[in-house]
Design brief:
The complex is a heterotrimer of chains A (379), B (372) and C (153). Chain A is an alpha+beta fold. Chain A has helices at residues 7-10, 55-59, 64-74, 79-94, 101-129, 134-154, 176-199, 202-208, 216-221, 227-231, 238-241, 267-288, 343-349, 351-355, 360-370, 374-378, and strands at 15-19, 31-37, 40-47, 163-164, 167-168, 310-317, 322-329, 335-341. In chain A, the strands form three sheets. A three-stranded antiparallel β-sheet of chain A has the order 1-2-3. A three-stranded antiparallel β-sheet of chain A has the order 6-7-8. Chain B is mostly helical and 372 residues long. Chain B is built from 14 helices and no strands. Chain B is globular. The chains are: A alpha+beta (379), B mainly alpha (372), C alpha/beta (153).
Chain lengths: 379, 372, 153
């Protein structure tokens, strides 16, 4: 942290630097209004809304079934998570307690694959933000294989519309399990390669350790969730704390930031938590894949979604954190109000708190470590 | 060591013209040659860099544009015509000048950078006799000329009237001016040992004794300090903070396009070649064959490789290897932050250089009295 | 249990709803929010604004979570759209953006918010689109808004 000069001594002005909406490392159309003193940043104001697609307004005019693909489009890097989260919330609203266990297994497997693929983007892009280009292409190469798996299952590569409230769009292809296991065998050693290339690189550690330290209480106060919160040393993961779906059946750990290279809660910790989480996802997948039960994936699909009057708030752990759907139903087939609590929206709001006082390069580092997706922030 | 310019003047002497006119006439031929070297170097280096990057990143790189019908496809020479196509594209592209830019300075800046690289080539020896002009103070001239470029960078950043460019220019100025010092100090060390500023004399000293990189522990360290510093001086990753694309978009080049931007690129790759040649001449024995230092068990017939004809080959081999190492850096390392870069220079390299300078003097004194 | 602490203190002021949430009046919200924070609800998950579409009434739903005790609390406030609600942005700083969004989308006014302005919509936007009485304007910044949408449906 650099001491900001007292401007009254030298009569210097601060410069407003406008980073974005078109900028290589604002991860989309985010605009940052940065007040700088030379290289040192004294205040950052994120300006969002450039990708606002009226998700919540649309939802008020669409039936519950029609919202599912819109929910996918919110977080386009983890569309499966969004579909799953939305499906869970509608099931909660409808009072569907029990789903066929094949549905739950397939959902969990795809969600964990999605978590790996989203984290692969996150760590690759974080490397790109600190200037290392090769890790990005390596992680994208491996993400491509996950996308191929998804393509095989759902027919789509980015936005799947596969998980529907009450079931799935269709069943798994017969060769999926073998291909998925094959991928896991290939992918597990790759994590070590990323660690060799990027995680333990001296320059990378210099750039990210001790930068943008987010203490635990600040993180909670700002509503930061997901890997960013866990990077601050808070073992909070909905999959573990309040298991939805069938996560309680699996054995996995919740990695937290330990300050291995610097302070607990620095950018390096937020990055490394994602690397460790990929290993945990592999653990879950290795347990889940061999024991998918037989059954019909569409038997629980409701014929018509027309929930009773009432409100629910449901939570789900996506790759970026705690997504919440607050749905008010007026007894019709469209929700009266649907609010999505977007994790990246809350994670981004902490940016000024943790990166003011650092340099321009560090703002990019911190932003990269928070792993935001503008589609989800702007909705 | 005779220089190409002297040779040309002798060659043109039959015309009977005055010596001063002959110099003016003769100077055009090496100038053209230097320009060709720069262009060819940039064309090949860009292509190689893209292929090296592709290899390291597990992808194919350029593979579509062929040359005279050689398309290559997925093989390593695939897309061999890509840089030529890119060059043509850049030269025919619209030259965009922002409304609020200082148009004259903006036009001037790329040429100053180009001239810096161009003039440096005059003293750069490609082989024993293959040098445009053989200065007595060759090293000094190269150090002086290679810092001309920074004026162009500041000018480019300032005249673009863009905050990103300005940041890039300020960073570049601080960085290049700082890294001049360790470069100067490491070369000074060599000069102390060899006792001459002339590059030919330095290589001759290495021929008489041994290559500087293995001469003493201090010159060994000095080589690495020199090489890291020149990577910083040429703004290559991990020291590419002036054009840091994830922070400053394109740094001081943000507002440039087309031809002017192509000139920046030309100069960047020319600078890479210059510093690599200087490194290979000063530390790695220049045009001396590496076979000479391991002359145990090598058949006599191989020693033809040690001959004067192959001087150019050895210089370029060593230099291009260093260029490759620079590319290797670029596709492996993240970027340092601006204060870490300054820290590295002022608190690590310069004290080391000064200590090095002191100890190498003692080393020479002792080894000179004991072993001679 | 934190939730009981809350109910005990404000038993006469809260109205329990059937899904376990509490309806409170907006005048009491200032005291209550501070108390809620004190009894351990350190994580404000979400602030949802909604339009009741009767008597120009709007509502806010606050979803709290206690990271220590793993407890949930939902507080709802329903009020007339001209009432000013106490801003909790200084207690849970995550509320800063949530309240800006509630203002942006629903036109709810907050009292004591540090930086109240639109967040997702452009600054020159007129009206609050998630209100039930919101009508699509004919012109936006002088540009006609296409009404015939048959060509993209």
């Amino acid at each position: 942290m650099y001491k900001i000069l007292d401007k009254s001594i030298i009569g210097a002005d601060e410069m407003v630097l406008n980073m974005g909406p078109q900028h290589p490392s604002t991860h989309g159309v985010l605009r940052l209004k940065i007040v700088t003193d030379g290289e040192v940043v004294s205040h950052i104001e994120p300006i969002i809304g450039y990708l606002h697609r009226c998700f919540e307004k649309h939802c008020e005019n669409l039936s519950y079934e029609q919202i599912a693909p819109f929910a996918d489009r919110c977080d386009y890097l983890a569309a499966m998570h969004m579909g799953h989260a939305y499906a869970i919330s509608v099931e909660k609203l409808l009072g569907i307690e029990e789903l066929p266990s094949r549905v739950e297994y397939i959902r969990v497997i795809l969600a964990e694959f999605q978590r790996i693929s989203s984290h692969l983007i996150a760590i690759g892009v974080f490397g790109l933000d600190v200037g290392a280009i090769t890790p990005f292409t390596w992680t994208l190469r491996d993400r491509e294989r996950i996308i191929d798996l998804f393509e095989q299952v759902t027919g789509a590569r980015l936005l799947y519309n596969y998980i529907w409230p009450g079931g799935l769009a269709h069943d798994l292809p017969p060769t999926f399990v073998n291909k998925a296991l094959e991928f896991l065998d290939y992918f597990e050693p790759q994590i070590e390669e990323y660690n060799n290339l990027l995680t333990t690189n001296k320059i990378f550690i210099e750039r990210s350790a001790d930068v943008g330290v987010m203490p635990k209480d600040v993180a909670i106060n700002y509503g930061v969730t997901g890997p960013s919160l866990r990077g601050s040393g808070m073992p909070f993961d909905l999959r573990k704390d309040e298991p939805y779906s069938i996560y309680s059946k699996f054995d996995f750990d919740v990695p937290i930031g330990e300050g291995l290279m610097g302070t607990v809660g620095d950018s390096w910790d937020r990055y490394y938590v994602k690397v460790l989480e990929m290993k945990e996802s592999i653990k879950i997948l290795r347990q889940a894949l061999p024991q998918i039960p037989d059954g019909d994936v569409q038997s629980a699909l409701p014929k018509k979604i027309r929930p009773k009057k009432g409100e629910i708030y449901s939570r789900y752990e996506t790759a970026r954190g705690d997504v919440g759907f607050y749905i008010r139903s007026g007894g019709k087939n469209t929700p009266t109000r649907l609010k999505m609590r977007s994790p990246a929206y809350c994670n981004l709001s902490v940016l000024n708190e943790i990166s003011a006082g650092w340099m321009i390069s560090d703002v990019i580092t911190v932003l990269g470590s928070l792993d935001i997706v503008l589609g989800e922030i702007d909705r | 060591m005779t220089s190409a310019l002297d040779y040309l003047i002798e060659l043109l002497a039959f015309t009977g013209l005055d010596h001063s006119i002959l110099v003016v006439l003769a100077i055009h031929i090496p100038a053209l040659a230097i320009f060709l070297v720069m262009v060819v170097n940039a064309t090949i280096a860009v292509y190689v860099e893209r292929k090296v990057a592709a290899f390291m990143q597990d992808r194919l790189g350029p593979m579509e544009v062929g040359l005279f019908g050689f398309k290559g496809g997925r093989r390593f020479w695939g897309g061999i015509g890509q840089t030529i196509a890119d060059a043509i594209k850049l030269l025919t592209k619209e030259d965009i000048v922002p409304d609020n830019a200082d148009k004259k300075l903006m036009l001037l800046a790329p040429f100053i950078i180009f001239i810096g690289a161009f003039l440096t080539f005059i003293a750069v020896p490609f082989s024993e006799n293959l040098v445009v002009s053989d200065f007595n103070v060759g090293i000094f001239y190269i150090i002086a000329m290679s810092s001309v470029g920074v004026i162009g960078i500041i000018l480019a950043g300032w005249s673009s009237n863009n905050k990103w460019s300005l940041y890039g220019a300020m960073r570049a100025a601080a960085q290049i001016v700082s890294y001049e010092i360790p470069i100067g100090l490491t070369l000074l060390l060599v000069v102390i040992v060899a006792g001459s500023l002339n590059l030919g004399d330095i290589v001759q000293w290495q021929a008489d004794n041994r290559w500087f990189i293995i001469h003493s522990p201090f010159t060994f360290v000095a080589f690495f300090i020199y090489f890291i510093s020149v990577v910083a001086e040429t703004n290559r990753t991990p020291f590419d903070i002036p054009e840091a694309e994830s922070e400053l978009v394109a740094g001081w080049m943000t507002e440039y396009s087309g031809f002017k931007w192509a000139i920046f690129f030309l100069s960047e790759y020319a600078n890479m070649l210059i510093v690599s040649i200087v490194a290979s001449v000063v530390f790695l024995g220049g045009w001396l064959s590496p076979l000479a230092i391991l002359n145990i068990g090598i058949p006599e017939s191989w020693m033809i490789l040690d001959g004067p004809i192959l001087g150019f080959f050895w210089v370029m081999l060593k230099a291009l290897f260093l260029v490759f190492v620079m590319m290797w850096f670029r596709w492996t390392f993240p970027r340092l932050r601006v204060d870490q870069l300054m820290y590295l220079c002022w608190k690590v390299f310069i004290p080391f250089c000064l200590a090095n300078l002191f100890f190498v003097s003692i080393w020479e004194l002792i080894s000179g009295t004991i072993f001679r | 249990m934190s939730k009981e602490l809350f109910v005990k203190k404000y038993s006469d002021k809260v109205e329990a709803l059937d899904n376990g949430s509490f309806l409170v009046s907006y005048e009491d919200w200032k005291d209550m929010s501070k108390h809620i924070n004190k009894i351990g609800f350190d994580y404000l998950m979400c602030i949802t604004s909604y339009d009741l579409a009767v008597d120009e009434k709007l509502g806010l739903a606050y979803n709290f979570y206690s990271t220590d005790k793993k407890e949930y609390l939902e507080i709802r406030i329903e009020f007339h759209n001209s009432d000013k609600i106490f801003s909790v942005a200084n207690i849970w700083r995550t509320a800063n953006w949530h309240e800006r969004e509630a203002y942006d989308m629903m036109g709810i006014l907050f009292d004591g918010h540090p930086d109240m302005k639109r967040i997702l919509l452009p600054e020159d936007w007129e009206g609050h689109p998630l209100r039930k009485d919101w009508k699509e304007p004919d012109f936006y910044n002088g540009m006609p808004v296409p009404k015939d949408k048959s060509y993209w449906e």
